[in-house]
Amino acid sequence: MTAVFEDKVVVSTAKTKYETKIKVGKHSLIADEPAEKEGTDLGPMPTELLASSLGACTSITVRMYADKKEYPLDSVEVHVTIDKRSPEDHKFSRELFLSGNLSPEQRERLLTVANACPVHKILSGKIEIETKLG
Q1: Confidence (pTM)
Q2: What is the DSSP letter of 16?
Q3: Run of H or E including 89
């Protein structure tokens, strides 16, 4: 029998202007809107969390691969931006900064690996969102 793993996140917003509490397993996060959007700026905006997910997944995937292949990667830094072209059209841009004594071939391979991170695959694949009342 194959185990089924669900990523369950619980999110709640009370009357505190847009301060949103996020529970992910044993972890707690806060999302919010900036003051100019009438928020309290206690945490990143939801779109920034989405970009953060792509950046974190990319960084971890590159690190895992480099460790497995014993590449001399000292650190990886990922910069992510979202270009909102229209309400239905968005472009994510990533820039990887790889530190270490890597060969040009290793650098190219790590760039390819970055595109294989699970969040990249989710965002570039078919997405369906089902919403229902609980």
Answers
A1: 0.89
A2: S
A3: strand 89-100
pLDDT digit string (tens) for 50-93?
999 999 999 999 999 999 999 999 999 999 999 999 988 999 99
Q: Which of 108, 114, 119, 75 is nearest to 94 (CA)?
A: 114
46-69 and 104-114 helices, crossing angle to 10°: 140
Q: Taking the alpha carbons of 15, 23, 35, 93 in that order, is the dihedral positive or negative? A: negative
The amino acid at residue 65 is Y
* Structure tokens belonging to residue 51: 């970009």
- C-beta of residue 103 within 8 angstroms of C-beta of residue 85: no
**Rg of the chain on CA atoms, in Å:** 18
Query: What is the DSSP code string of 117-131?
Result: SHHHHHHHS------
Q: How far apart are CA 40 and CA 33, in angstroms?
A: 6
What's the pLDDT tens digit per position in 9-52? Answer: 999 999 888 999 999 999 999 999 999 999 999 999 999 999 99
